[in-house]
Amino acid sequence: MGMTRQIESAGGRVLGALSRLQSIVGLILIVLLSIVLSPKATDGSIIFLHWGNLTDVLRQMSVVGVMALGMTFVILTGGIDLSVGSILALSTCVLATLLTQWQPGLDYGWHIAIAVGAAVGASTLVGLANGYLIFRLGVPPFIMTLAAMIGIRGLAKWLTRNATMDIGFGQDAAAVFARSIGDKTATILVFLSLAVIFWVVLTRTVLGRYVRAIGDNEQAARYSGLPIRRVKVWAYAMMGLLSGVAGVLYAAQTNQGDPNAGSGYELDVIAAVVIGGTSLSGGKGSITGTIVGTTIMGVLTNILGLNNIDSNVQMMTKAVIIILAVWVQKHRKAD
Amino acid sequence: MSNCGRVLCAAVVSVTLMLGGCKSSSSPTEGARKFTVIFSQCNNAEPYRAAQNDLMTRLWAQYPDVQFSILDAQQDDKKQIDQITTAIRQKPDLLIVAPNQRAPLTRVMGEAMRADIPVICLERDIVEPHYTTYIRCDNYAIGKMAGQFIVEHLKKKYGAPKGNIVQLQGLLGVEAEINRNNGAADVLKVYPDIKYVHTAVADWIQSKAKDRMIEALNANPQIDIVYAHNDPMAIGAYLAAREKSREKEMIFIGVDGLGGEQGGIKKVVDGVLAATFVYPLCVDKAVEIGNSILRNKDFKPQKEYVMTSTAVTPENAAELLKKTAN
Amino acid sequence: MSVEKTLHAVEDEATLAMANPGASARRVVDTMANDPSDGFLSVDGISKHYDGVYALQGVNLQIRRGEVHALVGENGAGKSTLGKVIAGVVRPDSGQIRLMGQRVTIATPMDARCLGIGIVFQELDLFPHLSVAENIAIGNVNLERRGWVNFRQLDEFCRPFLQRVVLQCDGRTVLGELAIGQMQLVAVARALSMDARLIVMDEPTSSLADDSVENLFQIIRQLKASGVSILYVSHKMKEIFQIADRISVLRDGKYIGTRQAGKTDMDEIITMMVGREIQSRPRAARNLGDQPILSVRGLTTRRLSEITFDLRVGEVLGVAGLVGAGRSELGAAMFGLDRILKGTVHLEGRAIAPRSPREAMQCGLGLLPEDRKLQGLMMRLSVRANSSMTVLDRLQKCGFIRGGAELASIQAVQKRTRLKSASYEAPVSSLSGGNQQKVLLAKWMLVDPKVIFLDDPTRGIDVAAKQDVYDLIAELAAKGKGVVFVSSELTEMLTCCDRILVLHEGRRVGLLQAAQTNQEEIMALAMGSVVPDKE
Description:
The structure holds three protein chains of three kinds. By secondary structure, chain A is an all-alpha fold. In chain A, 75% of the residues lie in helices and 1% in strands. Chain A is built from 14 helices and two strands. In chain A, strands 1-2 form a two-stranded antiparallel sheet. In chain B, 47% of the residues lie in helices and 19% in strands. Chain B is of the alpha/beta class. Chain B folds into two domains: 35-131, 3-Layer(aba) Sandwich (Rossmann fold); 139-279 and 313-325, Response regulator (Rossmann fold). In chain B, β6 (163-169), α6 (175-188) and β7 form a beta-alpha-beta unit. By secondary structure, chain C is of the alpha/beta class. Classes of the chains: A mainly alpha, B alpha/beta, C alpha/beta. Chains in contact: A-B, A-C. At the A-B interface, α1, α2, α11, α13 and α14 of A face α1, β2, α3 and α4 of B.
């Protein structure tokens, strides 16, 4: 009797490891393929493996990556957030407005800090509103965030009167901001630190445990007295915050506050999360998986770009990869 | 199917896919030295840009030792920046860029220049001159021509320079937009009775223009001129007016003047547009200059090349259409 | 052919007689009662098991033409399953079904319908947003399949059947607008429209009011007169004796016997339903305190009326009743999951009215839910995560889980529940039913409530694990906790409990001392056949 129990729990461990392993296997596969298919530089080295290129990939996936961290939490609780692209746009606009049209006479450091704080703060507020309304009104997350997607986009465009705001190349606070945050290393550091922080939150904190529990079985969570509303609202607020941070990174990279930014990004974010092994029905997923998923998409974009593949073909390839990734990770239902 | 089976299956499919895709696109031919030319296009979906792509592909195809590829950024700044960054890694012999917006592309084109890659900036400009040469059209002149056309038309209609104008704009951050706007506005500002009753942004897109026009029609009982900053938007406005049976009340002016069945010139011939202004593709010049840059190490292009525009009106439309068919 | 059938029947009965000595005399009488000359449908040796648990074991049944044949048994005896086998909803693992002597295979509901067998489910399988006519038409074997719908044709088709069940409504009425009783009649009409010669009715009156029940019985009598047989699956004794011709009893998935309704009485039927040896020793009497730890007075909710009882310190109170009698609802009401409309609950003298499980836990109540997979465990999370779920507040510092403290707590409580799991990180889905239940119990031990409500804690777990659970309950009681123990197994309740509260249709009908009662008495009360005495 003890023997069977030992076997069944050992089996459980292997199963858990296997499901995490699948997305990593996929990543290794794509990386190997990229090395093979990469064009060569004039000195014969593999362009894909150039340090500059690899860090390019990391930088390029940072915006989506930061948002994917938040989306992991939202999807883990059994919800979804379609408004992330619009929140990103709002963040870039708030940031650009404060950097270029507000002259407080402060030290550049403070000016930038306040502008960034306001942009991220506004985004967090939108996230909070999303979460609160979803819970209060009982509107399904898909619908609520769909409405937010449209509404917040409209808000951003209205605030800026449809115009973009250049974050300049001169010497003012805006330019200093763009140069510092838009720098490759800074962007990558922001992404990686946030990844570590949220990994810790999900695996080591009470909140992380609650998120998983609620996503796995909300009814049981209720029966166990978990603070369901608090956790869900928190998840959406974090999503807003991270979309705001993504917006800050975006504005730094594009030197612009743009109300049209981030259009359609929600699908890239969800794809990254899903490829990483998080189940859309909630309860199954991890931050590690999300990072792997984001990296797979990033490497794929990179290798297809290095080979100058027609963008339409790129889109179709990505679609196939997404389907394959999800299909492979579908577990047979445990009896 | 077991999980292992699925993983294996997926691996096989993705490997085949990637190998097929990547190998088919790059077909290096030994022999003559290959030049790589990469064109970063901001948005394949606009008809003007599709025409650019067509012409550019045809012209470069004349040189068998040039490998030419087009990148489509789908109107997303970050995508274009990322695509150009990756393109720089390949060290192409020539990079042609049609920037999506001014500020976002400035830095990355500077990086290209720093990597010793010649850069041709096409049609739209950027904030700082990080390019080898800039081939543009005089949008301000086009705006002026449009303004003058409007004044003439209104004088003929009412005997005096007065009337209501609806203006449809493209993406606001773009040089072409700014100048087509200002060119006309500067002409019209001396006539106090010519008023802009409604100005809306339609991002260069026909369907959005139609929606904005419907709003304009609802808000204004009398419209004389619709000045749209490109042909698709002008056509969208026409469709909106026709739905409300008010298309006879006003005239429609666009900019681009492309040839072919879908282009603005045909629309002038058909009477949909009262006038359009040929916005040269700038492509022939780009290929000409680009080719010189590739083959002649000492060639120093001008910093700027300005292409001229022609007005297309019912008088010369038919003839121009025939010319563009060649 | 009928002689052959008689021989078959006798053979079957003889086999049964050999397996269960002492009842052979009765069996011979049964054989004559089961004279198959009017036989319409017979099932022989039907067995069905789920996950290693037998729902049906070698069941035989004969249904005659034009009779109302009742099928009774305790919760989980297998009566619904048998009905579903006949109607093609469930495939048996072994056995045969014979229709008028011919062997038939019923693999799907469509097969059943083609053979003239219809079923009216307890939870109606109709479409509330479609019209009455559309409901009758969907999947109907008597209507040609065409690409489009002709409503007039549909109406004409349905009208005679609606008339037969005396349902005054237009075929175009949306089903959801009808009363439950009327919806049931639509289901019957549908069965009739497919020329059903046997209609299986699974707990048909569970949602009906008295006048609708009488209406239904009228319809049933008319159907009988026109030669349609009815298999009436139910646990409502009074109704069965009103409407049935013969009554068959199942117990623990086995066929026990058939009686003519006119020649038997409720006591005999009940004895057949519960009669079994009590295998374990009766418990030693416990030393209980005088003070009630929990006092419930006049508790009324949507499903309960005027429930009153006291739970003393260190007492184990069993709650018995049929499915739907209100046992789980009692727990839900006390635990803040259901709104209390009237009445009071006092815990250690203090009045409590929790509005959520969280509040209930803070007051000192605990609830082990009925369905551990749906309501109790997070299947994909580890043993560790599940066990500590409710007490994470205590095991954290600045929001971070203190892994060491968590592990220590779980180890301590694991010893008490005798949970065997080599790794705490294994997902609970990989554990056996018994161990899953122990994880749930461990969780509640960590919470350490003053009163704990255990809803069917031994359902679907192996014998050894059950014993562990009983030991745990005894331990909890010894520690001075109050334990409320809901179960469908009367034997285990008699062993573990001090007193047993019996519920029937949301009302308390008895509060018995476990040492002084037996299964028959409990079952009789639960089925509402005895006038309840107030204690």
